[in-house]
Amino acid sequence: MPAPPVAVVGLGQLGGSLAAALVAGGRQVAGWDVDPAARAAAAARGVSITRELGGVVVLAVPLPAMAGALEGLTVDPDATITDLGSVKAPVLGALGATYGGRFVGGHPMCGTERSGHGATDPALFAGARWALCLEPGTELPRWLRVAEVALAVGAEVVPVTAAEHDDAVAAVSHVSHLLAAALAAAAGEAGPTALALAAGSFRDGTRVAGSDPAFVTAMVEGNAGPTAAALDRVRAQLGRPWPELVAAGHAVATRPVARETVRVPVDRAALLALGRQGGAVTRRLAAFVEGWVPARG
Amino acid sequence: MPAPPVAVVGLGQLGGSLAAALVAGGRQVAGWDVDPAARAAAAARGVSITRELGGVVVLAVPLPAMAGALEGLTVDPDATITDLGSVKAPVLGALGATYGGRFVGGHPMCGTERSGHGATDPALFAGARWALCLEPGTELPRWLRVAEVALAVGAEVVPVTAAEHDDAVAAVSHVSHLLAAALAAAAGEAGPTALALAAGSFRDGTRVAGSDPAFVTAMVEGNAGPTAAALDRVRAQLGRPWPELVAAGHAVATRPVARETVRVPVDRAALLALGRQGGAVTRRLAAFVEGWVPARG
What we know:
Strand order of the largest sheet of chain A: 3-2-1-5-7-8
Number of domains of chain A: 2
Shape of chain A: globular
CATH class of the largest domain in chain A: Alpha Beta
Largest interface: A-B, 87 and 87 residues
Oligomer: homodimer
CATH architecture of the largest domain in chain A: 3-Layer(aba) Sandwich
Structural class of chain A: alpha/beta
CATH topology of the largest domain in chain A: Rossmann fold
């Protein structure tokens, strides 16, 4: 099966990087952005700028713009629609209603605190995990087509449901942003001497607090339920005796990262089971995918 | 005034790095460590291994070992004693009682999650802030002697009281370690998919959770009061509406870092005022020190 064409809507950091990575791999990539400067930058990297989109159509726009991202554009009625948004249940609600089983929600776990087409990096996805949603209604061949795009730019694909994804990223990403903000804001209250003595642990702990606040607010509010639940788990941890808390955090932070290579049939339940073990797909074969799961100690 | 000799007790990451940096600058450095391997590593870098210590005696041992660090060693009765411990009021209580105005508490804000003499790096202090305690009883000429050692290895000296230091580092360092542990432990509870999707914000937010748990526990328990107060401030921040919290954190994390160069008389009150503005000493002149304060917007 030849690789389907890819069309990227939104050519900022994520979309621009994806388009650039695919072009670098010799693929035909179409693209569109409402910003003429982003269109020009993508065109200079070999992206065909067009309003007529087909194949795998990737929505790489901010969450508030997601539902309206295709307005004014012409989309092939057989196109597979995917997105790169940081929450999945709300996007599934909006786009799944329109596109049904043709919509496959996705979320590559990369990007930096920079944004915009000036932050484009074709290597952005290399080695990153890319969550890809497999709902009961998702058409499996379309899921595989989107997975193939993610694999083509060097990512590893984690099969999840939208709800599993949103709980997971609340725990590892959205709450990280709130903790970074709280650490920075509380240090600001503590005064100038505290900020003058800030060193490595503060810089690391507050790095993502430098991200665009409108983007972060949209992200956490767009995943409010799971984020509130994850924040409650963090609060409960902060109530533990400190030696216990420190030991528990150390155990997770230093867990072994050995992997076991596995082959999984191309089957909804088997793929989701792989994701639930903390594993990921690394390669598509014929009736199987190859991937890995964390090695059992 | 010729630079006084320096003797370093404890030749692990911090002490070994300090000794190596001073040797690299052409200074005579004596040193001792209870571990023969650490002594041998320091000797190979040009440190004179001896139990007879004078000049500026730097205690670079873990907090629980601080009070007994000089047992079995001979210390010149005119020596100035300083330390590199991460809390200052308890160390002042223990060593100030023995050494009075000859004791000058210190804390260089550097070091990594690595430890031991294998992690020695003579560049460790370059550009780091080094808190140096100026209590009502501290002899000012001794404070200047220790400050000169810190400046000699490229650090910037922040004049503080022990209490001010402990409040400040609780806010920027000790609470950072507890938040990192809580974030990691809560993600561990969330399960394998969450850990599989962990990316940049989680890695940054949990980096210090990889530090030796015994070291971290001693650090936070050794500064329990200020750390509990700083943690309460973080908890209060976490209770704010998210858009407010994110905006407040962003404002602190992206505050301008412009500096105004200042000259401050060598005077207890003037030096402490410099530290309270978030400033630091960068150079010793005759009756003045040169330093900087954050530029007013």
